[in-house]
Amino acid sequence: MDKINTEFLQRCIEVLERSYESLKNSDESSIEYEMFRNSLVKSFEMTLEQAGKLLKKKITPYLASKKAADALIFKDIFRYAAKHALLTDVEAERWLQYRDNRNSTTHDYGEIFAQKTLTLMDDFLLDAKRLKEIIE
User: Fold this and answer.
1) Would you kindly state where each structural domain of the chain is located, as residue ranges?
2) Between the CA atoms of 88, 18, 118 and 102, what dihedral angle is there, to the nearest 10 degrees?
3) Reported pTM
4) 16-22 own/partner pairs: CB under 8 Å, 24+ apart
5) Rounded to 5 degrees, what angle do the CA atoms 17, 31, 117 make?
6) From first to last of its 136 residues, what are the pLDDT tens digits of the chain?
């Protein structure tokens, strides 16, 4: 199997980490806080999407065909990864929660969504880094 390029995923993780650190060090009433929060939300979304795309590539050999892989929706990708022991069931469940949180952005880009995303960030960063290692 060809090596899967994870450079863009790594960059997404780095931007997300930097945004998160900058946000934590900013005054909540400042414009910088809002800038870093917006960057964090967008970086979270990009990291999540990239993780799903790359994991799909990783699990394709476990499936009957590339067509079967292409038919998988995001959550199924993580379920299959757990089924084939690439992720634990607990890790896969967290990824499904991250996706549910991401799906709420289409309805609420406001402060409530950002605060919910912040509560996930420590685990998400650890999971994203581990997933990158699994994909490599």
Assistant:
1) 7-135
2) -60
3) 0.87
4) 16/40, 16/43, 16/44, 16/47, 16/121, 16/125, 16/128, 17/125, 19/43, 20/121, 20/125
5) 40
6) 578 999 999 999 999 999 999 999 999 999 999 899 889 989 999 999 999 999 999 999 988 888 888 899 999 999 999 999 999 999 999 999 999 887 665 555 566 667 778 889 999 999 999 999 999 9
DSSP letter for 60, please: G
CA distance 136 to 134: 5
Instruction: Take residue 49 and report the two structure tokens written for it.
Output: 């999407």
CATH class of 7-135: mainly alpha
